[in-house]
Amino acid sequence: MENNERDDVEKLKSMFLSAWHNVQYSWILKTKTYFSRNSPVFLLGKCYHFKAEASVESVAGSCSDKASERKLVIGSVVEFRRDFASRIWLTYREQFPQIQGSSFTSDCGWGCTLRTGQMLLAQGLVLHLLGRDWTWSDALKMDGLDTESWTASAARKLVSSLESSFQGLKPPESHAPAPGRAEEASTDLNCVHHRKIVSWFADCPAAQIGVHRLIELGHASGKSAGDWYGPAVVAHILRKAVKEATDPELQGITVYVAQDCTVYSADVIDSLQKPAQGPETETRVDRKAVIILIPVRLGGEKTNPEYFDFVKGILSLEYCIGIIGGKPKQAYYFVGFQDDSLIYMDPHYCQSFVDVSMNGFPLESFHCPSPKKMSFTKLDPSCTIGFYSRSVQDFEKISEEISKVLKPSSKEKYPAFTFVKGHGRDYEQSELTSEGEPRHPQYSSGDFVLL
User: Quick one: pLDDT band at residue 294, thresholds 50, 70, 90?
Assistant: First the structure.
């Protein structure tokens, strides 16, 4: 009898908190985000410059400071908006199916880090299936969140009539498209992939990487619905979710999580390759793309300012898929920067559940038209950095470029993380390196090296 009463009290508390959070996060203030026309803007490895009157040479020079030897994008404000609004935005949701083992039908107030992790993984899947140059055709048709208050009820009404034309799309048949139809066929296939990626993150128990599934996998880490999740814990949950996914296209990608701020190159390459047919051959071919997640801590109680340039360097790399971070007790998905401000996508906005099983389900609420900015000085030191590698050649380029960014400053002895040749298991057998130097001490998955 007492157990039943206790359960009823917990359910009432959960329902009250959910109702309060739904009200708290279902509206936003009419604020604007300002960008300078005199400084380059970096968005997940692409450089934009809004300077009205500038030669290509001068603009390219300012961008190349952070993006040397990479393809530059000298874009307008419109092109930046299209690129930003095409990134997949995953926020708090309400009125979704009840999470098993709890009374929660919303993640408002506690699921922000899970949502930022989903956004980072979604960007990796976009690179995998669509490519970095892909943009959503309706990206510029949405009303900006910085010009009006967008409530959950309004979000439900934002259904584009064009989406109905994409219902029941199928991949192109094996024969070549008719002349003049190749571009249209490619666009149709991109629409299919776009919707499929969004559906993998749906708020229902059957979704491969939905919040219900992530919470279920979080039980192994001692986490339950309603708990706050840290960036490192989310990284490991995402790895498990992708590993156990059954969709054939998700089986073509894997997630590697660095150990104790160390990326073991041989482990990553093993994930990328497989032995060719025949047990005696040493030939290996590419098998899976890899998303590399690196939990780090960039200081003690606050982020060390010495790491600000490091974060800028990371976000300017074309292989970067963003950073799971934020400020204390508020998680954000960082995608770029301008000057001394980070550009991020904010999950702290409660929207209504969308049934992705419906043909032509609305996509507007999965894309954010307006970026937000935050000073580097507010950055919480705990974060997880993400990269995407399609092949061994990509990983070699990533290692080379990141090594340049990782060079410690004159005031710091150690970089934020390191690349080490060999497998992680090789270093677990001995506390000494091959040069006889002592290894860094081992830490649990929840700890970090304080620099």
Answer: very high
* Tokens, residue 41: 């803007």
- Residues designated as active site: 112, 346, 348
* Helix, strand or coil, per DSSP, at residue 367: strand
In 208-259, which ranges are continuous DSSP H helix?
211-218, 231-243
Q: Which residue has the tokens 């090594």?
A: 403
pLDDT of residue 31: 63
Q: Which residues lie closer than 8 Å to 429 by C-beta, 6 or more apart?
A: none
| Cβ(343)–Cβ(34) below 8 Å | no
Q: For 206-211, what is the mean pLDDT?
A: 96
Q: How far, in Å, CA of 74 to CA of 41, rounded? A: 10
Joined together, the tokens standing for residue 205 give 């128990």
User: What is the C-alpha to C-alpha distance for residues 21 and 210, in angstroms, rounded to an integer?
Assistant: 20
d(CA 51, CA 66): 17
Beta strands of 59-120 (E only): which ranges?
93-94
pLDDT at 431: 44
Handedness of CA 208, 209, 215, 220 (dihedral sign): positive
Place of tokens 């040749």: 421
